[in-house]
Design brief:
One of its GO terms (biological process) is translation. The protein has 9 helices and no strands. By secondary structure, the protein is mainly alpha-helical. The protein has one domain.
């Protein structure tokens, strides 16, 4: 019954694949809308925030995990999180170091409030509207924090997109080893990996989309966004069909 009522997916390999792809789309789509289409950061932020709000209202109304709705919100919140950081840095002149600190503290405050109210931060127990609200607020700050951290390493510190991606990928690998072999707390391991997949995806997105003169592969924001969105849609369709098939299976009776 808990699995049926849970509002977020189980943590599987598909979860992490789509999460990284969604973070990459968040980076490239934000650049495409604001720069390529010349909408600007302000207008793009207002439009995407409005779309996100509508998607969240639908998500809360469902009261359960539906792959299409859940991952649509993740992609949108990735875009909005990216735009929040970009606006602070590009329009207000806040440094990447400062934004990294601000979002780190903000995320810790969200976790503290969440835990003080619910006594757990575990993904498998997000089965009420209140817990889901804490979850999405935390996710938003992880995306904003990941954007700031990724840009800090790749641009401000001059490491480049490829080296930044390797650093974040190696960090996630260390956390994975800690969880499977060194008895690292499961909730801590999850959230650390969740935070780090954002700058990993952002670095990959910039590496693929940026021009060769800027250290990228020059595939452009359109090509990169469409490629990754296609993979996300394919995986979400697969997971939806799998979920529907599981729902049709007879429930074992117990004597």
């Amino acid at each position: 019954m808990n699995k049926i009522l849970n509002r977020v997916p189980e943590i599987t390999i598909y979860f992490w694949i789509i999460k990284v792809l969604a973070t990459t789309v968040g980076e490239t789509a934000a650049d495409f809308l604001s720069a390529t289409l010349h909408l600007g950061l302000g207008i793009t932020s207002y439009i995407m925030s409005g779309v996100l709000l509508m998607a969240l209202l639908n998500q809360f109304k469902l009261k359960r995990y539906v792959p299409a709705s859940f991952w649509f919100v993740v992609v949108l919140i990735s875009i909005v999180g990216t735009l929040i950081t970009d606006r602070l840095v590009d329009e207000l002149g806040v440094s990447l170091v400062t934004t990294t600190v601000i979002f780190s503290v903000s995320l810790l405050v969200v976790f503290a409030l969440w835990y003080s109210n619910e006594k757990t931060l575990a993904m498998h127990s997000i089965n009420t509207a209140k817990r889901e609200l804490f979850y999405w607020v935390a996710v938003l700050f992880t995306f904003a924090l990941g954007t700031a951290t990724g840009d800090l390493l790749a641009e401000s510190l001059g490491l480049g997109y490829a080296q930044s991606a390797l650093i974040f990928g190696a960090s996630i690998a260390i956390i994975t080893i800690g969880y499977y072999y060194l008895w690292m707390n499961a909730v801590l391991a999850f959230w650390l990996a969740y935070i780090l997949t954002r700058p990993l995806g952002a670095s990959i997105g910039d590496l693929l989309s940026q021009s060769t003169t800027n250290g990228g592969f020059g595939f452009g924001t359109v090509g990169t966004s469409m490629l990754f969105l296609s993979i996300i849609v394919s995986l979400v369709i697969y997971l939806s069909l799998k979920q529907n098939k599981s729902a049709l299976l007879p429930i074992d009776r117990q004597d």
